[in-house]
C-alpha cells in the first residue's frame, strides 16, 4: 500500500521578519506602558494577512535581565488600529533570552482569516519594558497539525503584578501537590498549554516538568529548563496538548524539579 502525502491548499508561509537579519532583535517589538503592570500601545505585526492562517508560530525574545524579575504579560490582538480585539490574552513573556540564548517558541493552533490585521501589546513589572516577537503564519490544510481553534482564555493571571498563579514545584523529582488554577471553566476547550515565569530575582540551572490536570489526573506534561542567566527555555513540546475539557471543569497544575526547586508563577491557556 502506498500512502499519499496530504496536499496543502496552498504552500505559503508569511512572516514579520525584518529586512536585515539580526542576532539581537527580530520581528515586531511591543513596548509596555511607562506605568508598571499596565498595557502599552498596540504594535502592528501585519496590516493584512495575505492568506488564511491555519495556526502560527510565535517566537518571543529579549526580556531577561540578570538578577532581576522581568515578569511580563503580552496580548495578541486582531482588528483595525484602535479597535483591536484580543485573540490570545496575557501570555507570560518575562524571563526570555535573546535569539542567541534560546527564545521561547510556540505553535498556536488558531485560525486567522485572510485580510486580518494582527498586533501585539505588553505590560510588565519594569516600566516601558520590551519584547521582540517573530510570527510565521501557516497556510494550507488545517488538518496537518490537528484541530484549529478561534479563541483562547488564560487561567491564573494576576494582572496587577504581570504574573500567574504562585506555585513552587517539588524538589529532586518529588511532585508538588495539585493546585487549582483559575475558576472552573465556563465553556468547553480542545487544547491546553502552560507557561511559567520565576517568582524570584534569579533562576537556577535545573529542569522542571509542569503538568496540567483535572480532578488530580494529569492531562499532559511539558519540560522547561532554567539557568543562572535568568532566562527560561521551554515549553517542550512547543505547542498545546489537544485534550477535551468540559465546561465546569476545574483546571489544576503541579510540577517537579531536577534539584532544589524555586518559586514560580504559572498560567494555563485553553483553546476553544
Question: Could you explain how this protein is built, in words?
Answer:
This protein has strands spanning 13-15, 28-31, 43-46, 53-61, 72-78, 85-92, 104-112, 118-124, 130-138, 152-155, 165-167, 179-180, 191-198, 207-214, 217-226, 232-236, 251-257, 264-271. The strands form four sheets. Strands 1, 2, 4, 7 and 9 form a five-stranded antiparallel β-sheet that branches. The chain has a five-stranded antiparallel β-sheet with strand order 12-17-14-15-16, with no helix packed on it. A four-stranded antiparallel β-sheet has the order 3-8-5-6, with no helix packed on it. The termini are far apart. Strand 14 (207-214) and strand 15 (217-226) form a beta hairpin. The protein is an all-beta fold.
Number of helix segments? 0
Strand content: 35-45%
End-to-end separation in angstroms reads 37 Å
Shape: globular
Flag low-confidence runs.
Answer: 1-6
**Oligomer class:** single chain
Major sheet summary line: 5 strands, antiparallel
Counted beta strands: 18
Instruction: Output the structural class.
Output: mainly beta
Helix and strand sequence:
EEEEEEEEEEEEEEEEEE
Mean pLDDT: 94
> What is the helix content?
under 10%
- The Rg value, from CA coordinates, equals 18 Å
Amino acid at each position: 500500500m502506498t500512502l499519499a502525502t496530504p496536499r496543502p491548499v496552498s504552500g505559503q508561509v508569511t512572516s514579520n521578519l525584518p529586512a536585515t537579519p539580526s542576532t539581537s532583535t527580530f520581528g515586531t517589538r511591543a513596548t509596555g506602558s511607562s506605568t508598571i503592570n499596565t498595557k502599552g500601545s498596540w504594535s502592528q505585526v501585519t496590516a493584512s494577512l495575505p492568506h488564511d492562517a491555519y495556526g502560527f508560530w510565535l517566537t518571543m525574545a529579549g526580556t531577561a535581565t540578570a538578577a532581576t524579575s522581568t515578569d511580563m504579560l503580552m496580548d495578541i490582538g486582531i482588528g483595525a488600529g484602535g479597535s483591536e480585539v484580543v485573540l490570545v490574552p496575557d501570555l507570560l513573556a518575562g524571563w526570555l533570552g535573546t535569539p542567541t540564548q534560546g527564545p521561547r517558541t510556540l505553535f498556536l493552533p488558531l485560525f486567522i482569516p485572510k485580510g486580518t490585521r494582527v498586533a501585539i501589546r505588553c505590560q510588565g513589572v519594569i516600566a516601558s519594558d520590551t519584547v521582540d516577537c517573530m510570527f510565521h503564519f501557516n497556510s494550507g490544510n488545517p488538518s496537518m497539525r490537528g484541530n484549529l481553534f478561534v479563541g483562547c482564555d488564560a487561567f491564573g493571571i494576576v494582572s496587577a503584578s504581570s504574573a500567574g498563579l504562585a506555585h513552587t514545584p517539588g524538589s529532586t523529582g518529588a511532585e508538588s501537590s495539585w493546585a487549582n488554577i483559575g475558576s472552573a471553566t465556563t465553556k468547553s476547550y480542545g487544547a491546553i498549554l502552560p507557561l511559567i515565569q520565576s517568582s524570584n530575582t534569579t533562576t537556577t540551572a535545573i529542569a522542571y516538568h509542569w503538568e496540567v490536570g483535572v480532578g488530580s489526573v494529569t492531562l499532559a506534561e511539558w519540560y522547561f529548563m532554567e539557568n543562572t542567566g535568568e532566562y527560561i527555555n521551554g515549553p517542550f513540546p512547543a505547542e498545546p496538548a489537544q485534550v477535551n475539557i468540559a465546561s465546569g471543569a476545574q483546571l489544576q497544575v503541579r510540577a517537579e524539579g531536577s534539584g532544589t526547586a524555586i518559586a514560580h508563577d504559572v498560567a494555563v491557556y485553553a483553546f476553544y
